[in-house]
Amino acid sequence: MTRSDTTVNPRADRDGRSAVSEESGLGAAASGPTASKNGAAAGSGANRRSGSAVSRVGDRVMTTLATGSGLLVSVVIGLIALFLLIQAVPALAKNGANFFTYTGSWIVSGATLEFGIPRQFYATVLVSVIALIIAMPVALGIALFVTEYAPKRLAAPIAYVVDLLAAIPSIVYGLWGILVLGPALVGVNNWLVDDLGFLPFFARPENAANMSTGGTMMTAGIVLAVMILPVITAVTREVFAQTPASHREAALALGATQFEVVRYAVLPFGFSGYISGSMLGLGRALGETMALLLIMSTAGPINFNLMESGQTFATVIANNAAEFDSPLKTGAYISAGLVLFALTFLVNAAARSVIARRGK
Fold first, then answer.
1. Nearest to 131 by CA among 291, 303, 355
2. pLDDT at residue 140, as a whole number
3. Hey, what long-range contacts does 86-91 have (CB within 8 A, 24 or more apart)?
4. From CA 217, how far away is CA 150, in angstroms rounded?
5. 114: DSSP letter
6. Beta carbons within 8 Å of 85's beta carbon, 6+ residues apart
C-alpha cells in the first residue's frame, strides 16, 4: 500500500462537503417558497373557516331576534284582542242585538243594560274622514315641496317644524281647539248654516250650543287634521326622497318639465308610501281621545251634519272610565274598545290590500 492510497485529499474532502452543502442549500431554497405558500394557504383557509363560522353565528342571532320580535308583536296584539273579548262578552250577551241597533243614550246603571255603537261608530268615522280629507292634500303638498322644489337650506327647517307638530301633547290640541279655533269658527259656522243650510252638511243643529262654542264635528276634524299631518308628511317625504335618480334623469332627458317629473316619476314611485302614511294617520285619528273629549262632549244624531257634536269610541270610554265599578258596566264600555280595535285592524288590512294591488 502506497502513501498516496492512504492519504486523504483535503481538497476533495472540501469539494465533497461543498457539494453536499450546495445540494442541501438548493433543496432548502427550492422547498422554502412552496412550504411558505402551503403554510399561508393553510392559514388563510383557517381564517376563512373561522370568519364563516362567525358569520353563521351572527346570521342565526339576527334571524332569531327578528323572528322573535315579529312573534312578540303578534302575541301582544292577540292578547289585547283576547282581553277585550273576554271582558266584553258578558255585557254583549246580556245586551243582545241592541249593541248594533240601539241609538239612544247608554244605560249601564244597576241591572239595566242598554247600549249600542251606531252613534259612536258614525262620529268616529266621520271625524276621521274629515281629518283625512284636510290632511292628505296638505301633507302631499308639503312632502313634494320639501323633496322637489325647496332649496336645501329651506327644506330642512320646514321638515323639522312640521315634525315638531307630532311632539305636541293631544291635550294641548284639545285646548287650542275649544278655546281658540272653536270661537274663531263661530262666525263661519253661522254663515254656513244661514247660506248653505240647504246642504245636509251645514243644516241647523239640534243643539245650538255647539255652534256658539265651536264644539262641532268640523272643529274636531280640523284639529285632528293638524294632529295627523306630521305622520303623513314624514312618511310621504321619506318615500319621495327615495325615488331613484335614474327615474328623474330619464324624465328630464326626454324633455319633461319639473311638474312632469313629479307626475310621472316621483308620484308613481311613492304612491304606496303615501297611502301607508295616510293609514297611519287614520289610525291616530280613530284612537284619539283627549283632544276630542275637550271639543265634543255630547252625543249627536246620525245625520252627517258637521255642525252637530258627537262622541267617538275613545271619548265615550274616557268620559265614563270613573264609573267602571262592576264587570257588566266595564264590559259595556270595553265592547266599544273592541269595536275600535277591529275597525283599526280592518283599516290597516284595507290599506295593505291597496298597496299590494298598486305594487303589481
1. 291
2. 94
3. 87/327, 87/330, 87/331, 87/334, 88/331, 88/332, 88/334, 88/335, 88/337, 88/338, 89/331, 90/327, 90/328, 90/331, 91/327, 91/328, 91/329, 91/330, 91/331, 91/332, 91/334, 91/335
4. 35
5. B
6. 338
Q: How confident is the model at residue 51 (pLDDT cuts 50, 70, 90)?
A: low
pTM value is 0.78
Any idea which residue has 272653536 for its cell? Answer: 182
| DSSP string across 231-293 | HHHHHHHHHHHTS-HHHHHHHHHTT--HHHHIIIIIHHHHHHHHHHHHHHHHHHHHH--HHHH
Grid coordinates of 79: 292578547
Quote the pLDDT of residue 82: 93
Q: Would you call 234 exposed, middle or buried from its count of C-beta atoms within 10 A (0-12, 13-18, 19+)?
A: buried
Task: Say whether 11 sits in a helix, a strand or coil.
Answer: helix
